[in-house]
Amino acid sequence: MKVYKKIMDVLAAAEKLILAASTLLILVLTVGNVFSRKVIHRSWSFTEELVVAVFVLITLMAAALACREGELVSLTLVTDRLPGKTKKPVVVLVTVLSVIFTVILFKYGMDKVLTQLANGKRTFVLNWPEWIFWSFVPIGSVCMILHFVEYCIDFCTDFKFVKRKEEA
């Protein structure tokens, strides 16, 4: 279990790094484009393509990190009022349904990536292969699935509680 948690911690750290770099990239592109438009009177036409694609990446990475803490799909109004023995089955049910949804998202994302690879479709301004941007969907989906399962295991085994007790 400790090895598994270390692997998941490394994945979460990588996701946080991607989030930070992506946010910085969007900031630089957006501010640079505004500066260029207002001062130089030339717009950076490529920024829209990149910013939209990176926003998709940010959304999915942030959703994956939220899954890790059980914050993405949770209605605690109901589960907090349940008796202790019924909380675990509800969390398992929510995890199963969430994983099913995310597997569907992964499947459709991969279908789109494979179709764009086969067609050789490229973006309008940058002329980059579109599959690069669409690959963010299956990557984010895999991260979400891993973190859904991680949260469910942590909740059902009380791993975080045991870890906190050991640290004290």
From TrEMBL:
<keyword id="KW-1003">Cell membrane</keyword>
<keyword id="KW-0472">Membrane</keyword>
<feature type="transmembrane region" description="Helical">
    <location>
        <begin position="52"/>
        <end position="78"/>
    </location>
</feature>
<protein>
    <recommendedName>
        <fullName>Tripartite ATP-independent periplasmic transporters DctQ component domain-containing protein</fullName>
    </recommendedName>
</protein>
<dbReference type="Pfam" id="PF04290">
    <property type="entry name" value="DctQ"/>
</dbReference>
<feature type="transmembrane region" description="Helical">
    <location>
        <begin position="131"/>
        <end position="153"/>
    </location>
</feature>
<keyword id="KW-0813">Transport</keyword>
<feature type="transmembrane region" description="Helical">
    <location>
        <begin position="90"/>
        <end position="109"/>
    </location>
</feature>
<keyword id="KW-0997">Cell inner membrane</keyword>
<keyword id="KW-1133">Transmembrane helix</keyword>
<keyword id="KW-0812">Transmembrane</keyword>
<dbReference type="InterPro" id="IPR007387">
    <property type="entry name" value="TRAP_DctQ"/>
</dbReference>
<comment type="similarity">
    <text>Belongs to the TRAP transporter small permease family.</text>
</comment>
<dbReference type="InterPro" id="IPR055348">
    <property type="entry name" value="DctQ"/>
</dbReference>
<feature type="domain" description="Tripartite ATP-independent periplasmic transporters DctQ component">
    <location>
        <begin position="26"/>
        <end position="150"/>
    </location>
</feature>
